[in-house]
Amino acid sequence: MTRYIHARTATAVAALALMLASGARADIIPTPDAPALGANLDGLLDAARHLNPTLQAAALETAAADAEASAAGALDDPTFRINSDEVDRTSGPRINKTYITVEQEFPLWGKRDLRRSAALAAVDAARGRERAVGLELAERIKDTFALYAAASAALAVNGDVLRLDRQIARNATDRYGQGLGSQGDALAAAAEVARTEVENARLTADRTAAAARLNTLLARPADAALAVPSGGRPLPVSTPPLTVLADRAQADNPRLAAGLAEVRGAEEERRLAAKAWYPDLTLAVGAIQRDNGPTGYTATVGFKIPLQAEPKRAKERQAVAKANATRQSLAATAADIEGDLAEALAALTAARQQAGVYRAQLLPDLGGAHDAALAAYGRGQGSLAAVLDAEHRLHQARLDLLRIEVEGQKALAALERLVGGPL
């Protein structure tokens, strides 16, 4: 019996280690050498980049901003005019003359450059938002995959426990039938089997829910098949200090990049609003056709007179308020990122430390206590209650380790989103 328990314990630990190991890259369409979708994290991230509609919508918004910027500095359409008039004369028959002109307005004082700069800033802001959407989507997939992998690992551990519980229940029933054990031990062992089966049902539901969320993030049917995960990402052995992470976030965080672009665009719009007091130039050239006379030519120069002051002042106030608002929004975003960085780093550090204690000390100690209790019971020197209690403690510790790993994976995903890429 003792050798049997040692073998089961080794199997459970091996299953746990396998589920926590890192998997290889998976493509969207599996090849003979590539794992199926869902087997590892990389394959899910690749699929999301092609399938997620939110990410594709952000890319289309960037394309729309880029298309708008390509024509931001262009001139307005010219105006074509035909005007029929009479030749000035004091007597004689009516002689008609026709003016055929083309007018074009030319914005002066650098207005076209300011419009182009504001539009290009809008493109940069859209690109930043698109990248931010991609990183946020990646974080959600990482979080959900951590739950999916942990539930699968917990099911593997729980399956080993269930097989062990059934063996113990059979032994307790046999001992009771032989008059060597009590009916209470047999009933307690059967109850432990039922408890483990209930736990198995709960873990199965957790894995099903995580798989449904993964499919939703990939715009697939919620019940679409996903491969059993080959493992989750291991937590990093060490992480950079907060100051280094903050510097990376300042340089690479897409929300900050989008905010900076919005500030730049708002400043260009403020300058453009101030230029409204300076008139634009309108040029017109054309030909004059006369019924009885030579063809002539005409040229016109026109300026808009900035007499309507209130609309211009209102536009200036609007542009100044928008510029100040974008600066305040950027400052708030930067503060949020710094706080989130500190929180995620603390959570990751705590998870790594806790997981280390579990692996190095708690699990080996609980495993030894469980084996010792089971061996004593096999020799008739211990109680079944002690065996079941030791087994329950070991089982719970394994599940707690998986929970800690999930918390660490969530913190790691948050850090990668905040700094704009892998650590």
Enumerate the strands of the largest sheet in spatial order, edge to edge or round the barrel: 1-2-3-4
The helix/strand order is HHHEEHHHHEEHH
The CATH superfamily turns out to be: Outer membrane efflux proteins (OEP)
Class by alpha and beta content: alpha+beta
Any idea what the CATH architecture is? Up-down Bundle
The first-level CATH class name: Mainly Alpha
Strand element count: 4
What does the main sheet amount to? 4 strands, antiparallel
Strand content: 5-15%
Work out the helicity level: 55-70%
**CATH-derived topology:** Outer membrane efflux proteins (OEP)
Rg over CA atoms: 37 Å
How many domain regions? 1
What separation lies between the terminal Cα atoms?
Answer: 47 Å
- Whole-number mean pLDDT: 84
Q: Quickly count the helices.
A: 9
Spatial shape:
elongated
Uncertain residue ranges: 1-32
Could you explain how this protein is built, in words?
- The structure is a single chain.
- With 423 residues, this protein is α+β, with helices and mostly antiparallel strands.
- The protein has a single domain, classed as Outer membrane efflux proteins (OEP), CATH 1.20.1600.
- It has nine helices and four strands.
- The protein has helices at residues 2-20, 41-51, 53-70, 111-177, 183-217, 242-252, 254-274, 309-378, 384-419, and strands at 79-86, 96-106, 281-290, 296-303.
- It has a four-stranded antiparallel beta sheet with strand order 1-2-3-4, with no helix packed on it.
- A hairpin with a 5-residue loop joins β3 (281-290) and β4.
- The chain is elongated.
- Mean pLDDT is 84; it is low at 1-32.
